[in-house]
């Protein structure tokens, strides 16, 4: 497989667009949990009932187009290889929970991969919509349109008091999880992040590191999302989240400026060392790759590295994960072999920029 | 078995209530039953209870073909989940669970949603019509409750008929929705 084609697979088309504040906010996402009113929830439903849901979705929505998102493709999890499923997770198009019932779970996905709808995850329907950069409000508006479109065909489980009835009480009400993915190297280097995360948690928002195990942030990428889904409207939840994200952006910009002014040489050294590692290493584990990619991305954003395009971080973060590496190698790889292939891939990718 | 309202005293009264064709079990201590208006203030109010069963479309548990066991926990009629199981796995088995455990959910939601127990957001477009009916029914039910407390049974019967008419409309709405 050619590297070009491979990269095309890693980056969803929408990720190539620049969004507002995309030097710090990589993407905005809205996820809505919905259920059929007359079918038992997936955790307890038998195969026949789950099939009713997947068949209905497949029949009603596959190849149908909704607005500018192109036609929806209907993909049954059972028809995918282990590596393909893993790649979908690494692209954040599906969650690992969807694979719990591989035989009876499915997804609808728009051609540009902006919209994906998981079928028989924890709830019957989990629709999610992405936009590049910081534009939560617009993402919410579009997610609502999509929700209305689905609702014409699906009788949702809904109650006036409890809102959208979800399998987990933490999703009841709006069923909405709004989140942004942020690159915060400045706050990590200046150690402000340890102080900010508990404060943000206290405001009813969740901060977690992305691509890391547990809460460890790999590549200084954090996901910030709402925790509460009941008692506040979707628009209010989004605007609360927006105001916190706006403040984080300001803090991050100040931290970057401070680093450049106070310890410019150290910062440059850090960035160019990482660049060197990515250009020349022969063995690269995922943790080091993430760290170096974050530094190089910071260098690009600060104008210190000029010859590489900004989207390379997003792209390589995805490309260098186990699922994609094994897809590229066309087979299962041991960890050490993955580290070697990762180094090779990154080197080749950087050469393409010149 | 504990009373499902106060969770303190033992439930001594067991009803089977039908709401829109769905059977629901109600277990209450005497005090809570009084507070809900199921019993009059007098201690010998059990005869009144029979009248109330009629008004609320309820039947005493003892006369039912499927007896309500006092040891078995209330299970969701659709998916079979009990409240204990719900607490253990932290997930509802189906939409009906919300109604089955309705009187125990406020503390659950209060805990996970910072004190909030009511949805304030989006309303599905298509369901808007039946929601309106539902709201009317809720209003009439509290009116009915009030009339019964005042022992104004004549008017109570009228209000009950109104509720039934609305419930029929609600069912039609639902069936029309299912035909799509
Ligand atoms: Zn009680
Ligand atoms: Zn249930």
List the defining traits of the structure above.
heterodimer; A: 354 residues; alpha+beta; 8-stranded antiparallel beta sheet; 11 helices; 10 strands; globular; B: 180 residues; mainly alpha; 3-stranded antiparallel beta sheet; 49% helix; 9% strand; binds zinc ion; UVR_dom (chain B); UVR_dom_sf (chain B)
Structure notes:
- The complex is a heterodimer of chains A (354) and B (180).
- Chain A is α+β, with helices and mostly antiparallel strands and 354 residues long.
- In chain A, 45% of the residues lie in helices and 16% in strands.
- Chain A is built from 11 helices and 10 strands.
- In chain A, the strands form 2 sheets. Chain A has an 8-stranded antiparallel β-sheet with strand order 2-3-4-5-1-8-10-9. Chain A has a two-stranded antiparallel ribbon with strand order 6-7.
- In chain A, a hairpin with a 5-residue loop joins strand 4 (115-119) and strand 5 (125-132).
- Chain A is globular.
- Chain B is mainly alpha-helical and 180 residues long.
- Chain B is 49% helix and 9% strand.
- In chain B, strands 2-1-3 form a 3-stranded antiparallel β-sheet.
- In chain B, helix 6 packs antiparallel against helix 7 (153-178).
- Chain B starts with 12 loop residues before the first strand and ends with a helix.
- Mean pLDDT of chain B is 73; it is low at 40-69.
- The complex binds zinc ion (2 copies).
- Residues 3, 5-6, 9, 28-29, 31-32 of chain B line the site of one zinc ion.
């Amino acid at each position: 497989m050619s590297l070009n084609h491979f990269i095309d697979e890693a980056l969803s088309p929408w990720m190539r667009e620049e969004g507002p504040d995309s030097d710090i906010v990589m993407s905005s996402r809205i996820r809505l949990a919905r259920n059929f009113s007359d079918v038992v929830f997936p955790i307890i439903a038998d195969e026949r009932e789950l099939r009713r849901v997947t068949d209905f979705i497949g029949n009603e929505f596959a190849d149908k187009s909704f607005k500018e998102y192109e036609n929806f493709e209907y993909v049954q999890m059972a028809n995918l290889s282990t590596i393909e499923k893993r790649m979908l997770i690494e692209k954040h198009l599906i969650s690992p929970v969807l694979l719990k019932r591989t035989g009876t779970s499915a997804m609808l996905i728009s051609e540009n991969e902006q919209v994906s709808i998981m079928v028989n995850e924890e709830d019957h329907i989990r629709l999610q919509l992405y936009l590049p950069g910081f534009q939560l409000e617009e993402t919410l508006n579009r997610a609502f349109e999509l929700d209305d479109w689905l609702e014409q065909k699906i009788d949702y489980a809904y109650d006036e008091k409890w809102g959208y009835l979800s399998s987990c009480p933490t999703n009841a009400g709006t069923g909405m999880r709004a989140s942004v993915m942020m690159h915060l190297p400045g706050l990590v280097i200046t150690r402000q992040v340890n102080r900010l995360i508990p404060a943000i948690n206290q405001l009813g928002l969740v901060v977690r590191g992305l691509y890391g195990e547990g809460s460890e942030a790999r590549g200084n990428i954090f996901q910030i999302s709402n925790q509460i889904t009941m008692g506040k409207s979707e628009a209010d939840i989004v605007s609360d989240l927006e105001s916190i994200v706006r403040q984080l952006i300001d803090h991050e910009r100040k931290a970057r400026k401070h680093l450049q002014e106070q310890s410019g040489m150290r910062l440059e050294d850090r960035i160019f060392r990482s660049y060197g590692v990515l250009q020349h290493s022969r063995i690269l584990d995922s943790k080091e790759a993430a760290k170096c990619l974050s530094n190089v991305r910071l260098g690009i954003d600060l104008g210190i590295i000029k010859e590489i395009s900004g989207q390379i971080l997003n792209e390589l973060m995805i490309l260098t994960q186990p699922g994609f590496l094994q897809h590229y190698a066309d087979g299962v790889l041991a960890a050490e072999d993955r580290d070697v292939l990762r180094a090779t891939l990154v080197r080749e990718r950087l050469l393409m920029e010149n | 078995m504990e009373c499902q309202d106060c969770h303190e005293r033992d439930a001594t009264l067991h009803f089977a209530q039908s709401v829109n064709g769905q059977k629901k079990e109600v277990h209450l201590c005497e005090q809570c039953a009084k507070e809900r208006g199921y019993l009059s203030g007098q201690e010998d109010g059990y005869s009144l209870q029979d009248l109330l069963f009629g008004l609320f479309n309820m039947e005493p548990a003892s006369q039912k073909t499927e007896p309500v066991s006092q040891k078995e926990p209330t299970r969701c009629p659709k998916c079979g989940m009990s409240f204990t199981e719900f607490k253990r796995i932290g997930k509802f088995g189906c939409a009906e669970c919300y109604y089955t455990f309705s009187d125990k959910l406020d503390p659950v939601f209060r805990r996970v949603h910072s004190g909030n127990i009511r949805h304030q957001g989006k309303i599905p477009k298509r369901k808007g019509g039946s929601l309106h009916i539902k709201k009317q029914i809720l209003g009439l039910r509290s009116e009915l409750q009030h009339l019964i407390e005042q022992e104004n049974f004549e008017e109570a019967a009228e209000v009950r008929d109104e509720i039934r008419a609305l419930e029929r409309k609600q069912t039609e709405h639902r069936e029309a929705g299912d035909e799509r």
